[in-house]
Amino acid sequence: xxxxxxxxxxxxxxxxxxxxxxxxxxxxxxxxxxxxxxxxxxxxxxxxxxxxxxxxxxxxxxxxxxxxxxxxxxxxxxxxxxxxxxxxxxxxxxxxxxxxxxxxxxxxxxxxxxxxxxxxxxxxxxxxxxxxxxxxxxxxxxxxxxxxxxxxxxxxxxxxxxxxxxxxxxxxxxxxxxxxxxxxxxxxxxxxxxxxxxxxxxxxxxxxxxxxxxxxxxxxxxxxxxxxxxxxxxxxxxxxxxxxxxxxxxxxxxxxxxxxxxxxxxxxxxxxxxxxxxxx
Length: 280
Fold this sequence. Notes:
Blueprint: E1 8-11, E2 15-19, E3 24-29, H1 35-50, E4 60-64, E5 67-73, H2 80-85, H3 91-106, H4 117-127, H5 133-145, E6 152-153, E7 162-165, E8 168-171, E9 178-179, H6 182-196, H7 207-222, H8 227-234, H9 238-248, H10 255-268
Antiparallel strand pairs: 1-2, 2-3, 3-5, 4-5, 6-9, 7-8
Helix pairs in contact: 3-7, 4-5, 5-10, 6-7, 6-8, 6-9, 9-10
C-alpha cells in the first residue's frame, strides 16, 4: 500500500505523526528509539485488531532514514485530554468515557501473542533504562506470587490516547498491551493520576484526582462492583505499576519517592535484596 511522508500533524514522547496516504497517517518513531519497541507496538496493535478489539488496523510497517514507522488510519478529532484542558468536558464526563473504553478492552479476548504480566515487565525493564536491578528482580518475584490471569489490558489508557472522532472515541497506542486482570489497568490509571501527574497551571490542583475518582466510580458501576471491591482488586498491582513508572519516566521528579515506596513494599513482602546484582 503506497504512500509518502507528508506534514507532521502530531508528536508524542517517542514518535511523530505524519500525513501519509489519503485517510492514513505514519507513526514514525524518533531517531534513537529501538526498532524493537516500534515493531512490538505494530504487532500488538495488529493482534488486538485481529481479535475484534478497539485497536486501529495496521496497514504497513516502513523504515525511513533508519526510523521505524507504522501506517495507521487517520483519526480526526481532538484528544480527550485536549477537551478536558479546554474545559469542554468535565472530569465526570471524561471519566465516564474512559471507563467505558476500559470495559470494552476488558471484554476483548486477549490475542495469543499478548505477553503475560511477568514477560511484559521483564521485557520492559530490559528494553528501557531507569530501573535498578534489585527492584526489577523483586517486582518479578512479586508478579510470580500473583494468581495467573488471562484478560486483556491496554496498560496505557489515558485521555491523551483517546481521540474523539465524529464516530465516537477511538483508542490508540497499544505498545503496552498485556495479559493481566482488569484491576491492573485501573491501577495504572490510579497511580498515574494520583501519584505521577500534576494539574497544568491554571487548572484545579485536584483535577487529576477528581478525574481518577470519576473513572473508578463509573467503572465499578459498569462492572457491577463495589468501590471497595475495585480498590481491593487494584492493591496487589500498585507496586508493580510504580516500578513501571520508573522505566517509563526515568527523569521524574518523583523518582526518589517512587523508589522509597517500592522498596518499602518489597521489604514488607520479603522480596527486597539490595545487594543482589541482577543484570537488567
